[in-house]
Amino acid sequence: MPTIRRSKLKSDLLPTRRATNSRENATFLRKQSTLRTLLILVIVALLFSIIGTKRNDHHHETTLQQQQPVSGVVAPRTSYSNSRTAYSKFQYNADPGHLNHDENATTGRQQQSQSENATSGHERRQSQSCPFRKYAPQRHYHLNSSHSFLRDATYVFGTKPFILRGDGPDPVKKICIDSSSWETITPSDRHKFSDGQNLSIMSFREYPSPYYKTQNTPRLRRETITPLVDLFGASSLDDMFLSVIYVGDSQCRWKETEEQRTTFRVSELTAPPAVKTLVLILDENLNTVAQKDLLVDFDGTSKWGNKAGPRKPERSARQLDDPRFFFHEGEIWVLYRNGKAFGYEDQVHNKVHFEKKGDGDWEVYIKSNETVRVRPGRNMAMISDSGSLRTVFYIDPLIVVPLDEEVNKGKGPARGTPTSHVHGTNGMMIPLATTGEFLGIGHFHRPSGRDTSDFARHGHHYTHVFYTIEKKNSSEYRLKRISKEFVFPSMSLEGDADIIQFASGLELLGDDLTGRLLLSYGVNDCEGMAMWLNMSVVQGMLQDVEEGKEVVNYMMPEGQNYSTA
User: Fold this and answer.
1) Cβ atoms 443, 482 nearer than 8 A
2) Which of 122, 245, 275, 486 could form a disulfide with 89 if both were Cys (CB 3.0 to 4.6 A apart)?
3) What per-residue confidence (pLDDT) applies to 168?
4) Using 50, 70 and 90 to split pLDDT, how confident is the model at 42?
5) Spatial CB neighbours of 309, under 8 Å, sequence gap ≥ 6
6) CA 319 to CA 321: how far, in whole Å?
7) CB-based contact 204:240 (threshold 8 Å)
């Protein structure tokens, strides 16, 4: 019985063992299939990783090539010029978008990535793209246009504008801002609401040209910018630049169709997400390495603008429109307008202050109790000469007003005086040591009125001229030389210009015969650009003006010249 019982038990267990083996085999097969799937996924992931690394390496290499300095500059802590983790909190996809003959071509794509912390303690910010924008056809100048206001106009020396092209490997440089702290770009393939407008760029050098050596006076004393000296180092600042740019109600969007707004990636916002005046620190290649709001410091006792009574004590951002830097008595000053506070025709200026804020951080501000109001007037250019400050009140006829007197009593041209409607542009006249002249840049817009139109909110079809003035005596100046009219090359359409180009900055590095001139200007009230020119080119453009003659005397219909007028 025991034997039979054991045999019976063994036979009874066989089906159970077969079932168990079958389940184990199925489990093993499932595990094999899962392992094969995981192996395939790992291989695919590795392939994508290799491809992505190559792409990132290429992008990183391209970025470094774009930021590579012309000459090496040693910073006190780490190099800012070609390091991803140095002072700069800006990491842009520069995406220059090579010029395309097709007006309807679009450029690049928005790239969103996280920038690294700066070694100087700057906060982490989101990376933004910074391409040259493409514009709809109506936003270009169209140099061969048959518009009557261009065809029937008069021009300096009877010559229509030509395209002035810059020097160097990057004839035009776009100046980049970071709007990520106040703007979310949606859809992500669109541009920012604005890249800023009417920027002004000046050098940090103590002696940017021989003129200041002959005066034995530094243009910018280092003790006035101590926080920046501590952060970047005095020697490094000699190769860096200070810029101011306004960000507000731009004309990046103006009268486009819905299809054009999509094609040219215009922001869907109809009002600015913020109104700001930004101070930028630029490296030797004009790449942005730091950005701060320009603040107004209210002391609680001083009036600022037309509003009765003092403002409450605070340091806050205010709208400082058309800002331009100039230098006087070794310090930086800023020209600006604030329509709501001072009226839309009044120009205002203040000394600029820098203050250290913690480890590696700083603020830049103006003081309400140092405000100087100049009225009526706009687009003035300052002359700092031998300790006195004057302004070019009008170019045509030339009127230079000393600012140490009651400027509010300054008068413009007498009623009925012929004028060419040329306006001043840059914030500071550039002294030329060789000839004793001062160099400026002026602009025309045609037609001369500022009425809103399908072209623009105000003026459009801008052209520019270089001009120089010289002293007749201790208090009088005369127009000495002037160039033919020119436009800047459009980065949207090759061989053309943009409908709005507004030059607001001039800077000379080196002597006035062989040095280099830096022009900074806005495009379509939407972007800030810069261009280098050899001074030999500028000197060759300037033509003598007869004693007693003004700009209006050289305005001729196309094809007519002064000698036959």
Assistant:
1) no
2) 122
3) 80
4) low
5) 303
6) 6
7) yes
0.85 exceeded by the pTM? no
For residue 518, the tally of other CB atoms under 10 A from its CB is 21
Q: Could you identify the residue written with the tokens 């002037």?
A: 482
The whole-angstrom separation of Cα 451 and Cα 262 is 28
How far is 237 from 244, CA to CA, in rounded Å?
A: 16
Lowest mean pLDDT among 6-10, 253-257, 352-356: 6-10
Distance CA 409, CA 429 (A): 23
Confidence of residue 425 (pLDDT cuts 50, 70, 90): confident
Rounded CA-CA distance 143/150 in Å is 9
Contacts with 491 (C-beta within 8 Å, 6 or more apart), sequence order: 96, 97, 99, 132, 133, 172, 174, 523, 529
Asked if 325 contacts 506 with a C-beta cutoff of 8 angstroms, the reply is: no
pLDDT > 90: percent of the chain:
63
Q: Which tokens sit at 114?
A: 């996280």
Name the band, by pLDDT with cuts 50, 70 and 90, for residue 307.
Answer: confident
**CB contact at 8 A, 180 and 503:** no
User: Among 66, 84, 82, which residue's Cα sits nearest to residue 127?
Assistant: 84
CA-wise closest residue to 551 among 440, 421, 412, 409: 421
Compute CA distances 269 → 249, 250, 266, 452, 541, whole Å.
11, 11, 9, 20, 42
Residue type, 115: S
Kind and range of the H or E run holding 479 = strand 477-482
* Partners of residue 314 on adjacent β-strands: 298
- Inform me whether the pLDDT recorded for 560 exceeds 80: yes
What pLDDT score was predicted for residue 25? 55
pLDDT, position 518: 97
What is the rounded average pLDDT of the residues 57-62?
36
Cβ pair 245, 323 in contact under 8 A: yes
* CA 361 distance to own-chain centroid: 22
Count Cβ neighbours within 10 Å for each residue of 108-143 and write b for 16 or more, e otherwise.
bebeeeebbebbbebeebebbbbbbbbbbebbbbee
Do 99 and 491 meet the contact criterion of CB atoms below 8 Å apart?
Answer: yes
**Residue 388 in contact with residue 404, Cβ under 8 Å?**
yes
Residue 408 to residues 155, 311, 373, 393, 405, Cα–Cα distance (Å): 32, 24, 8, 11, 9
Average pLDDT for 331-344: 93
Angle at 199 between CA 285 and CA 305, to 5 degrees: 145
Burial of 207 (0-12, 13-18, 19+ CB in 10 A): middle
Q: Is the pLDDT of residue 476 over 70?
A: yes
pLDDT, position 311:
85
How far apart CA 91 and CA 80 sit, in angstroms, is 12
